[in-house]
Amino acid sequence: MISVSNHEFVELRHQQPQTCKTHFVFTDIDIADLDIPEISSAKYQLKNGNAIGTYKKDTSDSSISSMSRSKKGKKIVAITVILLGLIFLGAGIPIGLQLRSSSLLEARLNFIRRLLSECMLIGGFFNTHSESNFTQNFYEIKESMIGAVMLPIRIPCQAQYLDAVQLALEGIDQATRMVSRTKGMRIVLSAEEMEQAHENGEIGVLLGLEGGHLLGSSVAVLRMFYSLGARFISLSSYECSSPWISAATTKEPLFEENIPTSITQFGKIVLKEINRLGMLAEISHLSEPSMMQVLNSAKAPLLVNNAIPAATTSPNITNIIPDHVLSALSSNGGVLTINIDKLSVKEAIHNINYVRALAGLEHVGLGTTVSPRKYALLLAELARDRLWNNASLKKLVGGNIVRILREAEANRNKVALSEDWIPPEEIEGNAYCRYPES
């Protein structure tokens, strides 16, 4: 027996929608018109206000055929669902991840392009050996949506005690001229100018020095480089110790008797002047004792450029940073940029996540790659991970570097200018092109 309340049909028929939400409205539909076999074949009678139907099973061939087709349809649907489930389970890939698979790479790349239009990607240090090379790099940078670059002046370590200072001055002149001749690029002198250039659709170029040997052991030379536009300095270049700070390794065994084991007292004076000027100090090539002393002495956040954690060592990477240095860098407020050049995308992501877990999101960035297009592919792959949302990706691509630049700039002129000179005994025997003082 099927019992249907007559009052319900009457009330529903006369109800009107009270809001703008979507409703299902029952209208005057005869139950027999619904073509439901069990109901359409029932005989109805009214008793005490209720519609009562006595159901008689339809044993006709058409009814049996209809029910048979229905059962077969349900079986087909069930089998299809089971097969799809087995395919996903057999592949070991959840359906949610299937929806975020490589088939959506273009969509993720579009997302990254939009993100980089809002927040500039700061590319790692890149080459200026020749104007043709510079021009080629510029077009690759522009195509990959890099918003700013850090451009260090590189001079061979062998020029130390010779004409390193002069070569560095010529390098700044060459870089400035090449940038001025390149439409869409301009030299920037601060984090604010870097952001303004990005807003104007230009690539901001921040000049710097790679190696303390370019200073000629003189804080006066350091100040002059700042006045020419240098805004960061690597305290040591690769395998190049100076009389006041030690690199991780050295190529100059001839002068080993004058190489310090860490940072000297004069080296701390140089660091103090770097902080006073508002320059950013970079420490990736230093020896471990030098790194730790600089981290403990610095009055502003430091940069460790193009490095990877020692725990994820790759045989192709030279700048290897131990975990205890990473922890100290986090306390200092600094940033480590991952050398992604010689790593696969998977390896690069592993290193990025390792530094994020150990030091924190605010202390990781992206280093150099020979192919700037790799940035977009790496970021598109990171975007698959829900750990990397818009805000965290913006910090990774450049937000963290902008932060430490601002904090370094905030220290400008907060301490007295240093008039100290390096003690003669620290350069004795090596300063053969320095005029002897009376």
Task: Describe this structure as you would to a colleague.
With 438 residues, the protein is an alpha/beta fold. 43% of the residues lie in helices and 14% in strands. The strands form three sheets. Strands 4, 5, 6, 7, 8 and 9 form a six-stranded parallel β-sheet that branches. It has a four-stranded parallel β-sheet with strand order 11-10-12-13. Strands 1-3-2 form a three-stranded antiparallel β-sheet. Helix 8 links the parallel strand 6 (185-187) and strand 7.
What is the secondary structure topology, with strand pairs?
Blueprint: E1 2-5, H1 6-14, H2 37-40, E2 43-47, E3 50-54, H3 61-91, H4 95-98, H5 105-118, E4 121-123, H6 131-143, E5 146-154, H7 164-180, E6 185-187, H8 191-199, E7 203-210, H9 219-227, E8 230-234, H10 265-277, E9 280-282, H11 288-297, E10 303-309, E11 320-321, H12 323-332, E12 335-338, H13 345-359, E13 364-366, H14 373-382, H15 390-409
Parallel strand pairs: 4-5, 5-7, 6-7, 7-8, 8-9, 10-11, 10-12, 12-13
Antiparallel strand pairs: 1-3, 2-3
Helix pairs in contact: 5-14, 9-10, 11-12, 13-14
